[in-house]
Amino acid sequence: MNTKNLSFRTRSIHVGSNRDPQTGAVVPPIHVASTYVLPGAGEPSEFDYARTGNPSRQRLEQLVASLEGGVGGLAYSSGMAATHGAMMLLKQGDHVIAGADIYGGTYRLLHKVLNQAGIEVSLVDTRQIHRLDQAARDNTRMLWLESPGNPLMSITDLEQCCRWAKSRKILVGVDNTFATPVLTRPLEFGADIVMHSATKYLGGHSDALGGVLVTSQTEILERLHFFQNAVGNVMSPWDAYLVGRGIKTLELRVREQSSTALRLAEFLSQHPRVRSVNYPGLEQHPGYEIARRQMDGAFGAMISFEAGDDFSQAKTMVESTGLFQLAVSLGAVESLIEQPASMSHAAYDREDRLAHGITDSLVRISVGLESFDDLKADLSQALDSMD
């Protein structure tokens, strides 16, 4: 079946899910084999060793590549493994520009791991193109973006940044975990690499761990696969199956969660105990117009807001919810809440964290599939608990 002209939702269900030719099963089998019999000594075969390739992993890679519009994809053991896989395109002495509003694990990788390999990094407010000009060096080789950003939900103009990078022959990688390919497909704006923490929205059920890279260029794909095979950082067959299963409902989940998130953001923006709300679907958000152009009909299901006046009040609030469970991660059917300063972004040096606007009183929520009324009531009583 030719799937190229099918809609996003239909491809989510059918790409990589061809019926099993041996049994007719509509769900392909999970291949757990670690090695494969070859046709002859030294003769090539599609599969030879599970680190190099696996049918279950391959099906997921084809699926995510189709949804992102890339030439191919690679599935890793975690989102951070995928991010590190992209960074392996760099070498000692190279320089990376990354957004200032990025996941704490990415900050840790850049500042406390890659720096030991002689790779330099600058954090920049990527909403302002002149900041990129100021940060660029002769040895700048990669621009790493997130939009919406984590945890401040900043919106970066991907097309503008990609155009800037292309004029300087700088690779562009985009962490698309928050937006998902349902809402944003960075390769369409000129990015070279897209990364997903598949643990989040792609899997969608808090029961799988993985990451995926998709690229628009065959040469980059071959280099990434060489490094992945050499290092061995691959997704397990079981996780590949779970993530692929989750993707079948990805569009339905993301659009429903986004709808509820917008209503919750509007509620929070009117609450007297909330000092500010970061959600790109609110018209007062500084990135609203770019998000409306860049995101496909919705604004995502992640919200952050300032609760109370200090660390202890925000801590009390996040520890007082019932339906919103206190946990890191995001993007699943159940709603989650966390305090970035002590949880997802604790890896930041405190001075850096505060300098980039990640305050002690910031709260981040991941809106699940529960009803709006129940989630609103839960947040309301938790905010009242700060008294």
Describe this structure in words.
It contains 14 helices and 12 strands. It has 387 residues and is an alpha/beta fold. The chain has 2 domains: 8-247, Aspartate Aminotransferase, domain 2, CATH 3.40.640; 251-384, Aspartate Aminotransferase, domain 1. Strands 1-7-6-5-4-2-3 form a 7-stranded mixed beta sheet, with helices on both faces. A 5-stranded mixed beta sheet has the order 8-9-12-11-10. The chain is globular and about 75 Å long. The protein starts with 7 loop residues before the first helix and ends with a helix. The mean pLDDT is 96.
What's the gist of this structure?
Helices cover 36% and strands 15% of the residues. With 387 residues, it is α/β, with parallel strands linked by helices. Helix 1 runs antiparallel to helix 2 and helix 2 (55-68) packs parallel to helix 9.
Q: In terms of structural class, how would the helical and strand content be classed?
A: alpha/beta
Proportion of strand residues = 5-15%
In what order do the strands lie side by side in the largest sheet?
Answer: 1-7-6-5-4-2-3
Distance between the termini: 60 Å
